[in-house]
Every structure is written in structure tokens, then in C-alpha cells.
Write a structure and sequence with these properties.
By secondary structure, the protein is mainly beta. The chain has three helices and 15 strands. The protein folds into two domains: 15-110, Sandwich (Immunoglobulin-like); 130-255, Ferric Hydroxamate Uptake Protein, Chain A, domain 1, CATH 2.170.130. Helices cover 9% and strands 32% of the residues.
């Protein structure tokens, strides 16, 4: 005889229970209470092997086989709360009553459950931009004066003239307040008292300004700079940046990625 089928709200019925009277045994004795069924996945309907099916009240349990099927005999008749569990799925419980001589066939439908993983902290050194690889190689060789991003963040200068003012052999000259330029003190002054040999500038490897003109160093902002190389004369200047005017000094400026070149 088929029995009652529990119902749950929603589109998915997580447990389907069929109750039936067991056939009497020889001598008029009824069979023991038996519970069997299958455990399947909600999304695919595939069997969930290894799922644990357990009766909370008695501790009777069974493990689903490769087809998701399980079977065991309960120790007594009465009200049963049967639960199916498997790692990675939300457990499902069915509650029903079995009289002596009845058996239950249960279909458990388990929904996958997202497993919260512990927070992972990844530590490492940020990758160096290709242009800065040569910067640090030259710094290690000891030619010139080098200012790194770490130096800038430590000193926190307001202007580039503040940053370069402490470089040995560099003299900062200013006019109109913040408009400043560098004099390495290597060239002879002209008739008007100003050097006719100007410091040469390269920004990210490209010549900046005219060789015959002074460059306002405060047109650059310290917060935009990744590194600075200062060479007082032609000696030690990387070959690609040498030239007739390198004797008056060369300044290589390396910008941080995505930063504008000029002060607005």
C-alpha cells in the first residue's frame, strides 16, 4: 500500500518519500522496518556517491554507493528524521512515521553549497618596469647620482627643485618664484653671466626640450617621478645619452606609469 508524500514549498522537492507495506514473512511475522532510496544532485540529477544517510534518533546509517543508492534496517518503528549529507552540498532532512511492517523509499535531492575558503594573503615584490631595470643596473655600477621612488616618498619634496637641491655638484637657480633650472657648474659663463652650455634632459629615454634652452625642472612634479639619474659631466653617462653637450650634465627622468609629464 502506497503512503503519503511530504511536500515542501518551492519548485524543487528536496525529499520524496514513498511508504509501503512490507510483505509478511513466514509464520505470519512481519518484516522489520526498512529504509532505502537514492541521493542525487539537484542541478544534474546525477547520483551522489559517498553521501551519508543517517537516522538522528537511533544512529542507524548507511553510505550511498556509486549509484547514489543506500539501504538499512531501522531498529524500531516510529517517527524518523532521516538526513542525507555530503561534503559540498547542503544537508537535507526528511521526517515521517513508519509502523511495524512498513518500509520507506526516499529520494534525497541535494543542492550544491559554496564552500567559504580562508582568506589568502599574497605577498611579493611588485614587478619592475623594463625601463627601471636599466636604472637599477646603472645605480649598482655607481656612476652618477640616483634618486629612487623610495627616496622621494621618504623626503616628500614639494617641488623638483627641492628634490635635486641636495645632489652633489648641482646648483639650483630660480627666477619668478618657482621657475628653476639646474647648473652643474661645468660650463663657462657667457657675457651676460649665464651658462651657454645647458644641462641635457631625457624623459623616459626621449630627449626633452632643446639642447640650447634651459628646462624648468619644476615643470615636473615629484609625485609623477619613478626615478632620476643625474650625471655632472660626460663621464659615466650611458652611451645612448651622450653627445656634444653631455659635458654640461645630463639628467634622466623616469615617470611613473600613467602619469602626465608636465605640471598643469
Amino acid at each position: 500500500m502506497m503512503g503519503r508524500i511530504p511536500r515542501w514549498p518551492g519548485a524543487v522537492v528536496p525529499v520524496l518519500v514513498l511508504l509501503a507495506l512490507a510483505a509478511p514473512t513466514a509464520g505470519g511475522q512481519e518484516t522489520a522496518v526498512r529504509i532505502h532510496g537514492v541521493v542525487v544532485e539537484e542541478m544534474t540529477g546525477h547520483a551522489i556517491s559517498g553521501a551519508l544517510v543517517i537516522i538522528a534518533e537511533t544512529g542507524d546509517s548507511a553510505v550511498a554507493d556509486r549509484d547514489g543508492r543506500f539501504a538499512f534496517t531501522a531498529r524500531r518503528a516510529g517517527v524518523f528524521a532521516v538526513e542525507a549529507r555530503q561534503l559540498g552540498f547542503r544537508p537535507v532532512r526528511a521526517t515521517f512515521e513508519l509502523d511495524v511492517g512498513e518500509s520507506a523509499e526516499i529520494t534525497f535531492t541535494l543542492a550544491a553549497e559554496a564552500t567559504a575558503l580562508p582568506e589568502v594573503v599574497v605577498e611579493g615584490t611588485p614587478p619592475v618596469h623594463p625601463s627601471m631595470v636599466e636604472f637599477f643596473r646603472r645605480k649598482a655600477e655607481g656612476h652618477g647620482h640616483f634618486i629612487t621612488r623610495e627616496d622621494i616618498e621618504r623626503e616628500r619634496p614639494m617641488l623638483m627643485s627641492d628634490l635635486l637641491d641636495h645632489v652633489p655638484g648641482v646648483r639650483i637657480e630660480c627666477k619668478l618664484g618657482r621657475q628653476c633650472w639646474i647648473d652643474m657648474g661645468r660650463a663657462q659663463p657667457s657675457l651676460v653671466g649665464r651658462s651657454v652650455c645647458h644641462v641635457q634632459y631625457f624623459v623616459d629615454g626621449v630627449r626633452y626640450g632643446s639642447p640650447a634652452e634651459e628646462v624648468d625642472i619644476n615643470s615636473f612634479r615629484p609625485e609623477d617621478i619613478e626615478g632620476v639619474e643625474v650625471y655632472r659631466g660626460a663621464s659615466g653617462v650611458p652611451p645612448r645619452y651622450t653627445g656634444r653637450d653631455a659635458r654640461c650634465g645630463v639628467v634622466l627622468i623616469w615617470l611613473r606609469i600613467g602619469r602626465p609629464r608636465l605640471r598643469s
